[in-house]
Each structure stands twice: as structure tokens, then as C-alpha cells.
Amino acid sequence: MKLTSIIAIYALFWVMSAFLLLPFGVRTADEAGVEKVPGQADSAPVNFRPGKLALRASVIAAVLCGLYIANYMQGWITVDDINIFGNPPGYEPSES
Question: Are 64 and 17 in contact (CB under 8 A)?
Fold first, then answer.
């Protein structure tokens, strides 16, 4: 696998992880008991920390990317393993 492919896969896992982690640990002004700024949305976070989010997303993305690359090299799970619809007529699975 090329380095550029690994970087692209890591970036995809990072973005996915960051978006999945966004709602965790965020509290609104009502939940935190803090006075709201005039014009502030009710759902606006009080304690949003993008650095902490980026660090967590980086760790999760590194683990997922490592597992993906290990699966690519070792062939633990292949397309034939996740074929839930059955093989089309005339198809012969690979012998790898």
C-alpha cells in the first residue's frame, strides 16, 4: 500500500471520528448553570474544546487506520466474507 493511500485512509478515519465525537462531553449553558449571552442559541456549547476533540479523533483514527492496514496486509476479512446477498450466477470466488 502506498504512503499516499495510507494518509488518505487516515484522513477519512480522522474526519469520521471527529464528527462522531462532537456530541460527547458538550454541555449547554442551561446544563452548566451559566448565564447565556444575549442572542445565543439554546443548543450552543459552553465548554467546547477543539484541541481535546482533535487529540481524541487522532488517536481513534490511528487505531482504526492501523487495523485497516493490518487487515489489508493479512487478509482477515475479504469481500467474499461480507457478501450477504450471495454470489451472482456464474461467479466463482477467489482462492486467496
Answer: yes
Q: Which residues of the chain have pLDDT under 50?
A: none
CA 88/CA 80 separation, integer angstroms: 12
Quote the crossing angle between the two packed helices 50-74 and 3-21, to the nearest 10°: 130
The confidence score (pLDDT) of residue 91 equals: 81
